[in-house]
């Protein structure tokens, strides 16, 4: 397993992301370009002690990789976002 701190670079915070957190229980991170979905899932589960339901990734036009991490219903993305200082 890769180092979780090297996989997750930083959380993404925009109005759209706040809406995703509140409505879809989804967190968005900028991640390492060489990280795959399994690495991202393990990193989030390790660092935040939650269960991940699904991970979707996207490469931006600026050659950055974004990960949309949907948490299982038992865990709230609001709580994780608060710990990260989003709210």
UniProtKB/TrEMBL annotation:
Pfam families: Ribosomal_L23
Entry-linked InterPro entries: Nucleotide-bd_a/b_plait_sf, Ribosomal_uL23, Ribosomal_uL23-like, Ribosomal_uL23/eL15/eS24_sf, Ribosomal_uL23_CS
A GO BP entry: translation
Gene Ontology molecular function: rRNA binding; structural constituent of ribosome
Keyword Ribonucleoprotein among UniProt keywords: yes
Family: Belongs to the universal ribosomal protein uL23 family.
Name of this chain's protein: Large ribosomal subunit protein uL23
Organism of origin: candidate division MSBL1 archaeon SCGC-AAA261D19
């Amino acid at each position: 397993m890769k180092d979780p701190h090297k996989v997750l670079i930083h959380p993404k915070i925009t109005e759209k992301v706040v809406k995703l957190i509140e409505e879809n229980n989804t967190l968005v991170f900028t991640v390492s370009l060489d990280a795959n979905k399994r690495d991202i899932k393990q990193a989030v589960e390790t660092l935040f002690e939650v269960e991940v339901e699904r991970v979707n990734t996207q490469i931006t036009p600026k050659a950055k990789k974004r990960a949309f991490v949907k948490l299982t219903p038992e865990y709230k993305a609001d709580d994780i976002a608060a710990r990260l200082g989003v709210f």
